Amino acid sequence: MLSENLLFQVATFVSLIGMTLGWRGVMTKYSGFYDLPTAWNQMFWGIIIGMVYAILSFDNIVYPYFNYIAKVEGAQVPNPGSLLIITILMSVTVHMLLRRERVRKGGSHPTSGWALGLAIGGMTSMVLIFRFLQYEDSLFSARLLLTVAAIAIITPRCEAMITAHQGFMILNGRKWGAVFRSATWRIGLLVMIPYSIANPFGWVFIGSMLMIIDPKIEDWVWASIPKPARRRLRRIWASNEREKRSKKSLGEEE
């Protein structure tokens, strides 16, 4: 078994890859047209609260669940009350961060939420991967590699979706409804991820949900871009599209 220091470095590196993929897939498309400094600030806070959230979730939900399915003596089903308290506290904390003056001033709730969620999900995936590797005898099995990849990619993106949607609802005046809805989605995520680690079929279900929700992300992010910037962005996209068609037609003529 490798040292815990090396396992932690591996878990951190893989989680950062998942966070980077989540950032590049959404935030880079609108780069320069949203409040980037605020998004980075939210990512900083996401790392802090995400680590606390990840440790609490693992100790109170994930670890007891694995002990229960492994039929460890004295193990019990994770306490539903703990699950409810952790997710509600997390959703309220996110609500408070997305209600800060600098976020409200620019209406950047969805983009700030996406950055915040990526950091929270990244810390969650880091803790899960680290603990998962600790209990594995072999680090070179196909099942382990696929599980680690799934945790690293899916967890940050799922949390980013939840937090961005919470920001979108806050932007549209549905403040406390956003808290309870995001808490409900977090409950589902905290239940499905450990289940999927034990039963890989669960990743198929989570992936299917991501594909269904994915088209809505652009609407959430678009809502946080100021109207003048939207017009400029549309002109840029139209210009790029004309340039592509022009190059394509020139290539066909040659």
Description:
The protein has 254 residues and is mainly alpha-helical. It is 83% helix and 0% strand. The protein has nine helices and no strands. Helix 2 runs parallel beside helix 5 and helix 5 runs antiparallel to helix 6. It is globular, with a radius of gyration of 20 Å.
Which descriptors would you attach to this protein?
globular; 9 helices; 254 residues; mainly alpha; 0% strand
Low confidence ranges: none
Main sheet attributes: strand count, strand direction, barrel closure = none
Fraction of residues in H or I helices? over 70%
The averaged pLDDT comes out at 85
* SSE ordering: HHHHHHHHH
The secondary structure category is: mainly alpha
Shape: globular
Describe how the helices and strands are arranged.
Layout lengths: L3 H23 L9 H34 L10 H19 L2 H6 L2 H26 L7 H30 L3 H24 L2 H23 L3 H27 L1
Helix pairs in contact: 1-5, 1-6, 2-3, 2-5, 2-7, 3-6, 3-7, 5-6, 6-7, 6-8, 7-8
